[in-house]
Structures are given as structure tokens and as C-alpha cells.
């Protein structure tokens, strides 16, 4: 059955579907970056509210800022912006169709349609999922990177920006001038203090254009910090086939694990849906939750993905099922990450490690090692290296973290141990590969990438252990290094 509003009543029995009148929905949220995660997470929470007859004036308008986003817009438009969500728990598969999205802004150079849509008064929240590396921040200092070519362009061409942030600034200028008022800008990316970082980027860019506008945005708009969590693999032929197997022809279905979490500050200048009625958490301590998640889950992904890629393991579940890579995760997490994580209500760091172990090991989640290893230059600087700095400051163990960085350097050399080629998997892949090849014979070359490591290369404890592990990996193989660290040799 081809998915559409007209066929909802004809979907196979047992598949949940919208019970609300989608024709009566009114937009309230514009979301930039309509990928799988957004549709399985934020859109799902809104869908659950709508199933209760609530939040019907908070429907989603999708948007994007890259040419490839147009393909997604067309796919979703063909099926009335509906999405099939397929939940993959370890022992069962279930499906539901969700429908809180009602439109998708056409992609255009200069983002005129996007600016116009955000400027309309019905949009009260502009949310984003644009990846951790998409906020134009210096990877070491975390300050706004005003020198980036995209930002320089947007500062000089405020009416025809390249970036989502330039479009937001342009829309906010129109709203201020028209008396429409501000909107809440809500980051849904895996960044610690993601609302603060989004404020820094938007206000920083606005200040390069118009100091008065920047002050108005800073004073009037809200940028709530949040923590989002669910494992959502990319969609490919296998996922489309899964949807067909349950009786739905969906051009963009989404598979996801049987776990979601959304924690956020209650700071919304123009109102918000009551997401807490369907499981979201509003708290003044987002930092505690996000620290636990970013340090154990996100850093944990990097702990295993690079070693798994070098050893040709296709999925994260396969990595966890490997005795050496799985042991690496547990030892690094418990010995070198947990000491830097404090409990949150109803969850200790040790219990969270057990939860993540189970989630990563779910065999039904075909989350590719390649996807998790993507953009290591952003993910290691964001998730792993802060832990190295914490360990150095506290005089705590960092041997496993040094091994993780050595595995990343080995992966970036560009080949697996079986001789196959690792295709480019980072925005600066060429630079990483050249440096990794040099580090094979002189490990310190890797740590000399100051744009990533800052002064960590000058920390003797860390540099010595990195040198040791990278030397062992090249001499004896990645598995030998993992066994040595885990005491399994």
C-alpha cells in the first residue's frame, strides 16, 4: 500500500496510524534538517501529543539548506509528509505511521523561501538537527568561528545566506521590523550546551551584520539546552524492504531502537507543546543528563567504531559482539569515563553503561560502523578529547582513551587490516589520511594537528601512551593492542 493520507485507513491491521485530523493541523514549528533522527524522535513526541488531541497548532514544517535536501522534500511530499517508523527491539518488530509534518519548504539558493516561512508569525519554534560539526565553532576553543568562508559570506550577504543560521538571522530581522516578535531556536544535536552554542552562532553572525539586531536576538529569543537520544540508523534498501514486508510502500521509512529520551530546559519565548505529557523531561539540570549521554554513549560510539572499522566489522552490534572490541567498550567506559560522570535522578553512571551496552548490542539495529565513525574530526574533539583533558586535570587513567585515539589514527590511514580501502569519511579526510600515514612512522605527527588536539600533544602522559598504542597497532595489529589493554593477551 503506497503511503498517503488517502490510504491510511487501508494500512495493514496492527499498524498504528494518526487518529487526529491532519487537514486541521496548524503549523507552529519549523525544523531544519529533516533526517531520520528528527522523524523518529522530535516528530514522534509531537505525534504522541496529537494522538491525545493536544498540540494540534504545533505541526511541523520541514526545511533544509543543502541541495540534497530537495530529494527528501520530494519523497515526503509524494506521501503527504507521512513517515513509517519501524521499532526494532531485540525480540520484536512493530510499526506505526506518524503525521505531525504538514509541509516542507522548497530548497533554493539564497534560502528566500526558508527566510519567508520562518518570518511568518505562526512559526514559534525553529528547531535544527544539522550534525555536531555544523555550528561553525572552533574545535579546540569552542568559540564561534567568524572566519569560516560560509560565515564570511553570510555576513556580507544577509539577504541571500548560505547557512541555516544566516537564514534564521534574516528571518528574525524581518520579524523584528514587522513587530512579529521572536521565536525559540532549539538545537536537537549532540552538543554539550547545544542551546548555548546555537545562541553563540546566531548572535555571533548577527553581530557581524547589525549590532542592534544581535542585541535584540540575544535579549528576545530563547535557546534552550537539550539532550536528545535514540539510535536511528540510516535508511537504505534494507529499511525500505522492511517497510514493504509489513505492507507499506514508503520511500523514506525510518527504523529505530526501542528507546528514546529527550531532556530540555523549559525556556520557550513563544510557547511550546506539552512534550512532558508524553515522556520528555523538563529540568534545570540538562547538563547532568547530557554529560552522562555524551560521555558514555557518544564517546562510547567512538571507542568502538574506529577499531571496528579497521577490523572490518560492519555494524555496531557486530563490534559489541566481538570479544575484544566489546571488552574495550566496557573497560574504557567503566574505568576512564564513569569517573567523570555524576548520577542523575534514577540513573547511576554504572547503570547507564549497562543500558548503553544493551542498546549497542541490539542485533536488529543495523547501525553501520561507518556511519558512527563519520566526521571523527568533530566527534573526537566533541566527545573523546574533553575526557582526556578531564583525566589529565584530575590525574586519572587515560590509557584506554589514548588507545582510542590511536585506533582513530590507524583508521584514517585509509585501509582496513584485511587490505580493503576505507572510503573518505570525514570533511577533512585527505588531511587526516596524509597525517595518519606520516604517524605510522612518527606517531607524534598525529597529535601535532593543533586544530584538533590543541596542546594535548604536549601532555607527556597522553603523548607517551598514544605513541605506545599506535606503535603496537602497526607492529602487531589492532586486536593485539585491544587484548593488551583489556588484559586478554
From TrEMBL:
Protein name: Mannitol dehydrogenase
Superkingdom of origin: Bacteria
A Pfam family it matches: Mannitol_dh_C
Residues annotated as domain Mannitol dehydrogenase C-terminal: 285-470
Start and end residues of each Mannitol dehydrogenase N-terminal domain: 28-276
An example Gene Ontology molecular-function term: oxidoreductase activity, acting on the CH-OH group of donors, NAD or NADP as acceptor
InterPro entries: 6-PGluconate_DH-like_C_sf, 6PGD_dom2, Mannitol_DH, Mannitol_DH/Oxidoreductase, Mannitol_DH_C, Mannitol_DH_N, NAD(P)-bd_dom_sf
Keyword annotations of the record: Oxidoreductase
